[in-house]
Amino acid sequence: MSGTSSAYSHADTGSKPADPYKETNLDHASLKERVEGLIQFIESHKFCLMTTRQKDTGHLVSRCMAVAALEGINLLFHTNTESGKTDELVGDPHVNIGFLKESTGDWASVSGTAEIISDRELVKKYYSNRLKAWVGDLGDGVHDGGPNDPRVGVIKIHVRTATYSLAQGNAITRGIEVAKGTITGKPAHVNQLRELTEGDLDTYRKSQNLVS
Fold first, then answer.
1. Which residue, among 196, 178, 158, 161, has the nearest Cα to 105 in the 3D structure?
2. Taking the C-alpha atoms of 95, 97, 98 and 101 in order, what is their torsion angle to the nearest 10 degrees?
3. What CA–CA distances, in Å, run from 32 to 16, 25, 196, 211?
4. 45 sits in which H/E element
5. Cα separation of 188 and 184, whole Å?
6. Hey, which residues does 49 pair with through a beta bridge?
7. pLDDT of 83-110, one tens digit each?
């Protein structure tokens, strides 16, 4: 592979980029634009997939989750602290959060480390009565699915890296781009592909006086 070091390569493209799609669609927006674009994307998409690693098998597992809130660029989710995912996060706190906008193909992949928080003030701050439908009322006066139920906790994702893609133009213009690429062999310019490294996010947090 040309241009970048890779642990796996099955081609030598010389001076030409081996991944021209990324080369064509990578957006070199400012750090502020990239971070704010990610935040806007997450805020407009409540549901996502959270991927964790099973403690006993090492297999990756994903489940649908709803974002409860954003704190700076960190994500907060409600959880039942007695569920399988909390066991998995204790074994390995590394997670991936995936978002998809089906109508346009916009997507975001966010990686970070998870912290399980049972602080009642934080739980109450973001608590919703709808959680009772998921946690349940055990009828013992304690485990009632309410904000003081010790099973109700928060998973905080400390975001470390992110990549996201925003569709360019509309379905017609994107279709034309794909058709041109099919005929000419030139990669279609249909997305704004944006990347945020750990260093980028550290720099942004410092500039905004945010806690990591």
1. 178
2. 180
3. 30, 19, 11, 17
4. none
5. 10
6. 64, 98
7. 999 999 999 999 999 999 988 889 999 9
Q: Which of 140, 156, 148, 142 minimizes the C-alpha distance to 97?
A: 156
Which amino acid belongs to residue 164?
A: Y
Question: CA 138 from chain center: how many Å?
Answer: 33
What CA–CA distance (Å, rounded) separates 78 from 91? 19
Angle at 63 between CA 58 and CA 67, to 5 degrees: 125
More confident call, 112 vs 22: 112
159 vs 175, residue with greater confidence: 159
Nearest to 95 by CA among 76, 116, 80, 110: 110
- Tokens representing residue 156 in the block: 């905080």
DSSP E strands, 41-124: 47-53, 60-71, 74-80, 94-101, 106-117
Residue 79 in contact with residue 153, Cβ under 8 Å? yes
Instruction: Return the residue matching tokens 């925003």.
Output: 166
pLDDT grade for 46, boundaries at 50, 70 and 90: confident
